[in-house]
Amino acid sequence: MSAITIKRVSGRRELKSFIRFNYELYKDCPYAVPDFLEDTLDTFNPKKNAAFEFCEADFFLALRDGRIVGRVAVIINHKANETWGTKNARFGWIDFIDDPEVSRALMDTAEAWAREKGMEALEGPLGFTDMDPEGMLTGGYDQLSTMATIYNYPYYPLHMERLGYEKEVDWVERKITVPTPGHEARMDKYFRVAEISAGRYGLRVRKFRNVREIRRGGYAYRIFHVVNEAYAPLFGYTKMNERQIDQYVNMYLPLIDLRLLTVIETADGEPVAMGVGMPSLSRAIQKAKARLFPFGWIHLLKALFIKHSDIADMLLVAVLPEYQNKGVNAMIFADLIPVYQQMGFKTAETHPQLETNEKSQGQWAYLEAEVHKHRRCYKKAVGH
User: Fold this and answer.
1) Can you give the pTM of this predicted structure?
2) Share of the chain above pLDDT 70, in %
3) Secondary structure string (H, E, C) spanning the chain
């Protein structure tokens, strides 16, 4: 069998090949949801991705007889290293055929890159920031993936462990049954706790009629301040700056059905918590074959505004630290549960949550919630 050649990606054409390898590898997998080509090109573009202000990255392809058989991105998030007092490099966007020579060649290259940059360890899969997909799937291979998470074949973790990578952290994802007659669980608990919390702390639910309201007076920045403060203590998180916030607001706000955005604020109008979701776009992205143009956008518009999925993706839930464990989460769910019911959602999928984050895990206690996916961040020392 021919030897593996590793090539550093250079230029937009090779970058497209890097992205499309994932499409080719998973073209027959009914559970995988590819990244949009256009969005991923922007993520890898220093002129469009604000994270390059504090990150550096390279991209590598593994080839055999001129054919791509694997890929990996290697990243250093200098802000994260400064925040957490580490000297870590990250690997992400990793894919490979089921061949130990390929995975070893890719990871040897990534480890050498990290050492050359003076790093002491390599961890991943991680992106530039926590807003990128992260965590290798280690359970739930027969579950449909989401737009914001990684899907990989079951052989990936086996390769990582053979290469000496060990668990750093794990995340879990839950499939939640939207309460219906016979499946109410204890949703009334949310409504009682929400009423108590609102009265005790002088809080109210804020809804929006249009996007202009969210942008007006810098309110979007105040919402993301909640996210920054809520997520700051969590594994590897680095606070988003204004340029990053602008990037995500411009990317996602036009796609959000504002009924699915709930903000909890004080009597003075200061946000203290938020929850946002959207109809699952997984099937629409599969139909679009990961391309917005020329016709992929039609599938997205249909899924968002005409006939949406009966699955909702819960993108973010965040509560300021000083308001955690005070029933504020209940206010979010008490507002959103009736909306989910009215919109015809049958299930909702949570974003990945650290298995050690007891506060986050506990918020689903009064609903029918099944852990149906597990994912892991691996780590290996690479210093001299």
Assistant:
1) 0.93
2) 99
3) CCCCEEEECCHHHHHHHHHHHHHHHCCCCCCCCCCCHHHHHHHCCCCCCHHHHCEEEEEEEEEECCEEEEEEEEEEEHHHHHHHCCCEEEEEEEEECCCHHHHHHHHHHHHHHHHHCCCCEEEECCCCCCCCCCCEEEECCCCCCCCCCCCCCCHHHHHHHHCCCEEEEEEEEEEEECCCCCCCCCHHHHHHHHHHHHHHHCEEEECCCCHHHHHHHHHHHHHHHHHHHHHCCCCCCCCCCHHHHHHHHHHHHHHCCHHHEEEEEECCCCEEEEEEEEECCHHHHHHHCCCCCCCHHHHHHHHHHHCCCCEEEEEEEEECHHHCCCCHHHHHHHHHHHHHHHCCCCEEECCCEECCCHHHHHCCCCCCEEEEEEEEEEEEECCC
